[in-house]
Protein 1
Amino acid sequence: MPSRRLAVVDVDRCVGCQLCMFACSRRHGVGGLENSAILVRSVGGVERGFTVVVCRACLDPQCARVCPEEALKPREGGGVVLEPSLCTGCGLCREACVIGAVMWDDEANKPVICIHCGYCAQYCPHGVISIEVRESAS
Amino acid sequence: MTSRKFWTENRPELFDKYMGGAGAAAALLREEVSARTDPLSPENAVVLAVGPLTALYPMASKTVAAFKSPLTGDYGESHAGGRSATAIRMAGYGAIVIRGASRSPVYIAIHEDKVYFRDARALWGMRSSYTVGRVIREAEPGAGVRAIMRIGRAGERLVRYATVITETYRHFGRLGLGAVFGSKKLKALVISGKKSIKVEKPQEYRRVYREIYEAAVKSKLMRKYHDIGTAVNIVPLTRIKALPSLNLKQATLQGIEEVSGEALAERHLAKRVACAHCPVACIHLAALREPYPDEPYFYKTTFVSYDYELIYSLGAMLGVTSTRGLLKLIEAVEALGLDAISTGVALAWATEALEKGVVVASETIAQLKWGDWASYLKAIEYIADQPSQFYKTLAKGVAQAAREYGGEEYALHYAGCEIPGYHTGPAAHIGYAIGARHSHLDSAGYSLDQKILAASQQPPSPQELVDKLVEEECWRQVLSSLVVCYFARGIYTPETTAKALKPLGTAVDSAALRELGQEVYKLKYRLKLELGFNPDSLKIPKRALETPTPLGKISESYFKEAITYFKHKLSKMMA
């Protein structure tokens, strides 16, 4: 079954406007950045360009492997789904993700997980991120 | 700063009445300073304010700083983007007030509710503001959701037109906020946060957001800032002979096309970057590749941000048409934290003063000569370091320098603030004179002049001209209270602005917004007058009367009539 994944297509086109970060929060119906699952930061200053940190939808996600409560379950087609009622906020998932894509909601003390909906990509004016369709996940 | 204490206060009445931004900042500053306040004493305050649209809508990307200006001695207001505005709001603040002065250099770190006073002795005196940014970046958390506002050596050494730099390439540029930071021994302010903002009607909010976003990325309105950037103005302003050059001895410069926006884009543009929450990405960075003279095949490449005003002040005004020279001059003012406009105008005056024998080479040390960028590069360092009495004076601004040395008739300033780069006609100059910040951005007189020129009309009566300028300045108070970048003024019309506020729970119509603009305008002028500003003292530099504009020579009587009418209008508005 084909599945959708948010992909960073060309990070060198990123101008650092962070519209994607704000879009992610807005999708939840709020303004600001609190629940944003995507982060754009400079690579040691604006002059050196940017990096876009977001879940890559791993097919065998390490964050789910380390979760002691099975609160993160592999999602069909890659990535994970969070079951907040099972999460104790231990933070192991955050440490396990080598690219740092498990964001954190400090208020709820739980991870913020990208669901690959693609809402942010609709607000990327420079073609940095887009939704990619994976034909078959195995 | 004096007792290294912080606290938060709820001031809903300020934000209810003025929305935020410029209105709230001016009101807060008014509580802090008076005519007696020395701008470089601990009694001066720095206010940084954001507004209700900050972090909620695209292009609402600016922070307003208010302070008593050490350059003019009256109201100081300066706007900057970068990530400053979103960071302040995401940290949970509407405004920040900085009082007092530290005994030793510190920087302030604000991470949401926590505030730290960090030792900055090791950062004081550092050669380049770039390095200061680099150090703080490593030392503090919040990458991606923070702003690092810092001063360079010019601010430490109290150059009255020193800037505060944020995110390497954006500035609180004008009127000397950097010197106020320096006088407080405040090297930097870093602020971070990622809070959320509840909106009353999420669905409507998302819909209005989409409309504004579409307008920003698809309409022609933002195209010019997006493609070539503000530097696109060099060619048209040269064509109509409105680009102040060689200290405004003339209004066009041979060879300036070498450093036009088009030429820079073609040969040097390396990348474009954006302020937080702005899709436009108007910040144009040129790559400057420099060989080291002592070793073959050894280069350094730096990225230099250029804009129209810098090409005017460090290019046209100084006769510099070499791209390499211009980029090096820009890099130098960035590293030191100097306002490019004031620096260029001060050095243009100094060059002419040297030419005319008003000052001598032993005073200027550098042999200032039009086009000789290597000499200007030295002089820029001298403004920061102040190795002689001459540079100590020049560091106080062109008005002070001309008062002490002479050459007032070609010292280009209004009320002490060096002129911006538009010699388009009477509206530009009268706008500089009567604008609350003496800035071209107060009322965009240059735009009014060009409209008159395009329609092949004569300038209106001085009264009508002043009315138009004041009306524009009043509306801009709304934008700068919300706070929206002026580049987006074509999108944030009164109707769109009202529409944007509605889902946030603020029901206003265009008429109410215009009224708010008038209130903020009056507040700013009330404060200006209290601080000692006197409209009677407004003078047009003689040079601006001598060099023809595209609308002909400005007549002194026209200017005077405008000022008289303005005084009258102002006292009526205040009554």
Protein 2
Amino acid sequence: MAREILQGIAVSAGVSIGKAFFTNRRRRSVSFEIIPPGAADSEVARLEQAADDVREDLARARDNVPAELRDHAAIINSHMMICQDPKLIRAASQRIRDHHICAEWALDQAVDAIAAAFSAIEDPYIRERVQDVRAVAERIQARLVGRHAEPLRTPDERIVLMAHDLTPADAMGLPTVKIMSFATAEGGKTSHTGILARSLQIPAVVGVSSLEESVADGDLVIVDALRGLILVDPDEAELADYTDLKYQFENYQKSIRRQSTLPAETLDGYRIDVQANIELVEEVPQVLDGGGDGVGLYRTEYAFLNRRTPPTEEELYEEYAQLASLLSPRRVVFRTLDVGADKMLAEQSQLQEPNPALGLRAIRFCLRHQEVFRRQLRAILRASAHGSASLLFPMISGLHELRQAKHILNEVRAELDAAGQPYDPDMPVGIMVELPSAVLISEALAQEVDFFSIGTNDLIQYSLGIDRGNKHVSYLYQPLHPAIVRSIKYVVDSAHRMGISVCVCGEVASDPYCLPILLGMQIDAISIAPQAIPGIKHILRRTNMEECKELLRDVLSASTVSTINRMVKETIYNRFPEELTFFSSMLDQDD
Amino acid sequence: MQEPIEETQEGLTVTVCVVNDQGLHARPAARLAQEAQKFGSELFLAMDGMEVDAKSILDILSLAAAKGTRLTLRGVGADARHALEHLSALFSNRFREE
């Protein structure tokens, strides 16, 4: 057994084995000293010199940024601006003079004051920029105490790079060819380290809280960025296992990439469309490279968030038309505005709803605020002239809502006709089936739309009556609960009886244990995260439809979640024992 | 389309609008402060009655100005007119590098 196994968060998949190399460790506590009278001027000069030095270090780091990592150059640039910001250095200098405290202490206070001011800002992105201010201040403090007089230590062999936290400037000072993987004590799913690791395509695990206490320079470590583990000083058996796993993973990645453009067809010839859920036009290349059959769910909320006034019709039209033409002849499904619950519009946040998940959101919001809804419909219709567009209404609970929405759509069509604006008159119109009420009346709904899209994440939440984000009840979030399996089956059967197609959107569709059950129901398409497409297509291409139907029959005859989960895990695991090591499953949480 | 520069008792002012998608986030804020620091005049940015130092990236960020926000740039000093012209052009060019 390894001397220690540390748990973190995997942010860039892979495995690496090598020697640990720390570029920086947590800074020691800064000194808190009162300076003698008359020493203020020289203390201020010392602070200014340190800030200048750091600024020069950063400028050098920025100039060394390779062209393909331009985003990081921009981050370093903003750190340079923070470093010379009057708010930081002038405020610290003022504190040195007023309170006769040393530069390190004054800087700490200045940062705390900035942090307090920023904590009142609503925009979470801006609020988090305090992290950048702290990173810069720590560099200046390190300079002040004479550390980092040299640039960061650089390795002379290939290493596993470890750090308390890795700022982009730190990373840029390092020769990337020598870095096999990253591990940091700080950081979460969206940290800079993860972005950097993914763009360099090397494994990374962040948020390993005891990293600095448990790992010394030169220790042999295994970075398991499939499960988010760091094995310190592993034994021979572990080394052998991981050498194997690393080799398999790398081969697996290559093979699924190579085959990702082949059709999504089972061994016995049942074909579905594997589409992507995206929210930015920038994600389209990843969808196409990964072999996606278009976009099954385009989330249109992004353009409406973080701004004071809603976007104009022209802005929306430009965005939608670009998307439709980039993807053409593949399909793109525009889901109309699904704000509410977790994504508030300014207008909604004023409502103070006690229970936003059950409040004025999605289609309800659009039917109430028709000017926004109509503008979006006009833009989508106009974009339909540029490719293969479909329209999707979210959170439909009954026929009346659907008819109201379609009525407005018809009025907008008539306006476009009158204005002589071109659009696709046959653009398919569908609904998200994500409420239990819609499941039960799905046959009636199917008679009035062209397709269904089953939103499993919300359907599970609303059917089982649990909030997945609430840790006290999240164990009840069971995608294969008999009620969920039967609901999905019921919707698929209703749709097919009425001759319309069904797509399943949501994590269930990209879970290798759940997918075969969906296939057994003869769904027509799935829509999943773009990065999951190659792996899921690879599994699907080696699945047998007859086996899926058999598994579905067994699942439908079972009455408890645990029986179903056990049955599914055994069957699927036996089918793809090696490959499933590379996937995480929603079913794993009950182990 | 840039708004005209006006002379007031507190110096020269011009109205600018945030047109880039992300609003005044880190990158545009860094660029604005960087350019403002090239001028000798005192430069300020005001929104909803709150006025901050246009040479400070932290001050600019603290406005959290989203896309569509209208702000007032104010300059006091010898090169204020030139500074205002230059900075308001940055806003309308969405802070793109030349």
